[in-house]
Amino acid sequence: MINKVTRRKASHQVLAQLKAGIHNGTYPVGDKLPSENELADAFGVSRAPVREALGILEVGGIISSRQGGGHRVEQHSLLSKYEPLVMEVASRSEVESLLEMREVMEQQAASMAAQRRSEQELQQIEQAFLAFRHTTLHDGQIGHQQDYLFHRAIMQASHNPFFVQILDNMHELYLGVLVYSLSRNLGRADERQRVVDEHERVWLAIKAGDAAAAAGSMQHHLSNVRGKLRRLEQEGKA
């Protein structure tokens, strides 16, 4: 049964109901989902939130695009039950908690990636790093999207799918923190270079297969991020 959406962000409600329908068998694995227009009419929304929800499901591998249009249900694994953590405005304590979790999770992910990564995954990490370096040092941009992809590539190379899912579920909050932190580097060449160097040390340790160095480099990088945000907060109070 489809319910009309309320004031909560429409795409999130559409996503939740589509996930529920996939899990309870309303949309069985292998079946084609209703069209975007049909779903929009059923939910009482425009096509935009439907398209956004379908995009999230497709990125997660829950559905796939069909040649000629439409989407087919591929799976309904445990991972897909987790709702994306979407926070329009994060408090300082929430940001601090996120960074604490990142230190624990990403140190382990970097260590595991150093031991488990394939050559293709190593290339993806390298490409993400090079894109971040170029965007940060030469394009004059903050590079938050490239930074996110770098950390995500490391998560993937750890071969633990829950790491990737947790990261994706916090996508908006994670990017928000990156934007807040990296935007403070604009006009500060020394800070931009320092952040690039920290990322490079993580990548090189993973490339060398040095699990301890990869974990240590990641911990050093994320500890610096936390320290920087604390300094910015104190400057804002001064």
UniProtKB/TrEMBL annotation:
Gene3D superfamilies: GntR ligand-binding domain-like, Winged helix-like DNA-binding domain superfamily/Winged helix DNA-binding domain. The keyword Transcription applies. Pfam families: FCD (PF07729), GntR (PF00392). The keyword Transcription regulation applies. CDD domains: WHTH_GntR. Keywords: DNA-binding, Transcription, Transcription regulation. GO terms for molecular function: DNA binding; DNA-binding transcription factor activity. Residues 8-76 form the HTH gntR-type domain. InterPro entries: GntR_C, TF_FadR/GntR_C, Tscrpt_reg_HTH_GntR, WH-like_DNA-bd_sf, WH_DNA-bd_sf. This is L-lactate utilization operon repressor. It comes from Serratia rubidaea (Serratia marinorubra). The gene is lutR_5.
